[in-house]
Amino acid sequence: MNNAWRNFSGTRWKDEVNLRDFIQHNYTQYEGDETFLTGPTAATDTLWGELQELQKEERAKGGVLDMETDVVSGLTAYGPGYINEKTKDLEKVVGLQTDKPLKRAFMPYGGIKMAEQACTTYGYTPSAKLHDIFHNYVKTHNDGVFDAYTPEMKLVRHNHILTGLPDTYGRGRIVGDYRRVALYGIDRLIEEKKNDLTTMGEHEMIDEVVRLREEVAMQIKALKGLKDMAAIYGFDISQPATNAREAVQWLYFGYLGAVKTQNGAAMSVGRVSTFLDIYIQRDLNEGTLTEEDAQELIDHLVMKFRMVKFARIPSYNELFSGDPVWATLEVAGIGQDGRHMVTKNDFRFLHTLENMGPSPEPNLTVLYSSRLPETFKRYAAMISVKTSSIQYENDDVMRPIWGDDYSICCCVSATQTGKEMQFFGARANLAKCLTYAISGGVDSKTRQQVGPAYRPIEGEVVTYDEFMPRFMDMMEWLAAVYVKTLNLIHYMHDKYFYEAEEMALIDTDVRRTFATGIAGFSHVVDSISAIKYAKVNIIRDETGFPLEFKTEGDFPRYGNDDDRADDIAVWLLKTFIGMVKKHHTYRNSEPTTSILTITSNVVYGKYTSNMPDGRKAGAPLSPGANPSYGAEKNGLLASLNSVAKLPYKYALDGISNTQTISPNALGHDDEQRAKTLVGVMDGYFDKGAHHLNVNVFGVDKLKDAMEHPEKPEYANFTIRVSGYAVKFIDLTREQQLDVIARQAHETL
Prior knowledge:
The chain is α/β, with parallel strands linked by helices and 748 residues long. 44% of the residues lie in helices and 11% in strands. The strands form 8 sheets. A 6-stranded mixed β-sheet has the order 4-5-6-20-19-23. It has a 3-stranded mixed β-sheet with strand order 3-10-13. The longest helix is centred in the middle third of the chain and has 33 residues, at 464-496.
């Protein structure tokens, strides 16, 4: 223990599990630029070359290289696996999800039907023995949910007014504090959990206590399994890591255990960069590590994150296109004491996008503040200009809520690392809700009575005074059924697909948040604006159903820095989360909401009818908090100003904004573009905006990549979508066309 913690400062973190205290006492700020960085080693080039060949083969086989059919995934389900058995000695970080690289595990506890469908979709035959076991003897999360669903819940799900619900897949968004494995070792963590267990139920044994005792017992078992898993690779992680290589490896084993046991919709890595820099800097000071060695460690760790894969079904892939994992990893930020937290390791993680080329994973996220060192901001902006592979989140608005040791648990949502978990809640389609307010709760596609049979608007014109009370009533109904549905889902997930390994690396006394989400945000804002400021005529079909709208006159649109529209946006966000908060949430979790759609805006749009803002039935909804397609008339800065007006306090689950900027709009060369981009982000985030995805390319490149995906330069062509990144050629053509249709700003 003394050797492992040699030269580390502080005492509180030694007496209790407290990663923040350890980091604050030991990290080294870096004020310099990127000139210290090194290129890829020969080992990195060899391994990455082999992995790229496997990725090509994977794409040639339709997106799946190999799939397990006979073994249920678990911590010790497989022996050791390597990228290539012949070159395994080159791997500085070891460990695969299965026994082969890019092979997808069989994970039936979320739902056996989905696990089997994932196999058959790609030509694999699932095990008859496992079919019998999980259909006849073992109940899954999906089974439990659909046994308990009410008719109303099934109806709203079928009609896609609640959509993307985690009832057929792992919910994800739980970030284990994988750093704990490196700093304390497994034995100390087991001891801490056993101590927690001894005090539970001393005074009363109610259902919550019984459940928590069982969960902690499962966590202890998972920690023991994690130690056994590492032993398969020849490592003893019972004690703390003694050097940088062990710290990286121990931490990765923690994450590997998570992705072996869960296939959640987001499997974030967390805030690990500053932590690992402490070990690397100590080894550099001691002369046992070179900068080349340090970069190689980070390159190999990132390579492993790029390899994480899950078996998915077609309906999931439609919602979350491009095979995302959301292995989100954060860099930078400001400490609560005012010191910036930029280290050399933050540069190293961004540099992996140069050493190994652009990649969607890990989902690299800069915790941004205008007070970060200029050298770092410029380097991050340069990486955006060159690769379009990173996103930015406003540390200055998140830090007061979550402290200075939070992680991003999916795309844009913050949670306190090791202190908190989130119940993920997909989206409520408010665009569809708006049409229900006009039709009296009848769905335009199915003609089912989905919402309450409130009185529809019967005249030929939608007036503001007539519409708003109906819309408020319909939103109240939607918020209520939304929360009830999520309560049921998360009860069943805890019961049948509990994340024991991840929760073992989080405090037992855990804070829980309850994430809801909004889809169709900008279309609702613009439609209300049209109803308020223009004349919206109803066009009815032969039955009298309100099928289309003809809007006469001009109306202000969200995305142009016009307070008339932007005030509606703020009102809508505040109103919806207020309605959600009226209802009891599972395990007394804290309700939040987001404006975030991922690539599912395309699927949501298919089931959403014509709207007063002019959007046609079936057309994709605008993603996240982005203005509606074609609405932005005043340039990039006006669009950013509109989004920046949305208060983060009303959407603590995140406000996603994705912008594509023509390179020439930023400058005539990369240096000028990076400098301009820093200026844009400083202004945007200083206004209180939460998030920004930055794409720097023209529409012509997108069109060429869509028509010629075989070109070598497009193999790793990465773009930012709503909260994450994807390889453009991995999107469906429909989703590629949607990306192309989005506003590409030619001027600021």
